[in-house]
Amino acid sequence: YTDAINEQIAAALKAHPEIPREEIFLTTKVPCCPGKRVCQKPEFNGTIAEDMARNNALLQVDYTDLTLLHFPCPTVEQTIQRFADLEAAMVAGHTKAIGVSNFNAELLNQLLSDSRITTVPAVNQCNHAIGNHNASHEPENGGDDKTVAFCKAHGISYSAYSPLEGLSGRDVFKIPEVIAVGKAHNVSAAQVALRWLVQQNITVVTAAHNASYIAEDIDVFSFTLTPAEMAALAAI
């Protein structure tokens, strides 16, 4: 997402030709314009199909596996029209699946209720984590539990970005309850935070530059949080 990142990913893919394309899952985004500041970038001044074609060209691939509509547009009508454009681009072969990002339950309901829309978003990616998921946490952007419940009820995979809460500044590494649960299982606070999400069937989007941190983040299936621990973490 954005030219610079797409070019970096293309370089990484080119450096590993031994990995078959079908074993790589590429997710990208397109903005819902007019709207957020990203719409002012020169690479996003076309239609949804043009933006997606540009992404694919920079990634040096024929298609992406998942394309998300990043943030709603300023109006519901504009948002629905852009998602319809995303559907058309999927049919044209630009991407295998489509979804949204930062959509709350109310907007998702409006989207699914519109007769122009025939595809249920595969994914809704929102800022969601321990300590940042209740009704007071970004309900306008889908970071709340109500949106998670709506997605589960309608077959939409809910995906959490910033699951360690680096974006909000409420870092899980400093939450006493998270630290205590980590000590009980001999795992890190990051692993607890990720496991809390995975155990609710919420996918996670996280990143690290340190190889040991990446390995640690992947290793969240060797332990299980108890119902009491899940409830205690949810109450934070």
Please give a quick description of this structure.
The chain has helices at residues 3-14, 48-59, 76-91, 105-113, 145-153, 176-185, 189-198, 211-218, 227-234; strands at 27-31, 66-70, 98-101, 123-127, 157-161, 203-205. The chain has 236 residues and is an alpha/beta fold. The protein has a six-stranded parallel beta sheet.
Task: Present the secondary structure layout.
Elements: H1 3-14, E1 27-31, H2 48-59, E2 66-70, H3 76-91, E3 98-101, H4 105-113, E4 123-127, H5 145-153, E5 157-161, H6 176-185, H7 189-198, E6 203-205, H8 211-218, H9 227-234
Parallel strand pairs: 1-2, 2-3, 3-4, 4-5, 5-6
The overall pLDDT, averaged over residues, is: 91
Helix count, per DSSP? 9
**What is the distance, rounded to the nearest whole angstrom, between the alpha carbons of the first and last residues?**
33 Å
**Element pattern in H and E:** HEHEHEHEHEHHEHH
Percent strand: 5-15%
Radius of gyration, whole Å: 19 Å
Query: Main beta sheet: strand number and arrangement?
Result: 6 strands, parallel
Structure description:
By secondary structure, the chain is an alpha/beta fold. It contains nine helices and six strands; from the N terminus they run αβαβαβαβαβααβαα. It has helices spanning 3-14, 48-59, 76-91, 105-113, 145-153, 176-185, 189-198, 211-218, 227-234; strands at 27-31, 66-70, 98-101, 123-127, 157-161, 203-205. The chain has a six-stranded parallel sheet. The longest helix has 16 residues, at 76-91. The chain is globular. The model has no long low-confidence stretch (mean pLDDT 91).
